[in-house]
Write a structure and sequence with these properties.
It comes from Photobacterium profundum (strain SS9). This protein has two helices and nine strands, in the order βαββββαββββ. It has about 130 residues and is an alpha+beta fold. Helix 1 packs antiparallel against helix 2.
Length: about 130
Amino acid sequence: MFSHIMVGANDIQQSKTFYDAILGAMGYEPGVLDEKGRCFYFTKSGIFALSKPINGESACHGNGSTIGFSAESTEIADAWHAAGVANGGTTCEEPPAIREGAIGQLYLAYLRDPSGNKVCAVHRVS
């Protein structure tokens, strides 16, 4: 359904360090910088990217927005969360845990990246 997701970042290198760590915990390669200073993570299922806002204003997070990354296990979700906290992210919402929802049990781990974007590792338990 999606070709790519791009989030704004005020400090591309700081955000790259954060995303290299959390996505590396999931087995992805480090991001690649282009000639415009944007950072891209290329996968078989799509692209995740970081960019300073084109309008020159400060990047800010979307209130109510969350980007979820699929985790193959609870252990990978925990490693993702620990890597994020160790690399400039902050825990938000509840600590990583199983939550009941309309689509069954999900193991969720939430973070805010260095620019305030809310991201989540999601493992479908059932």
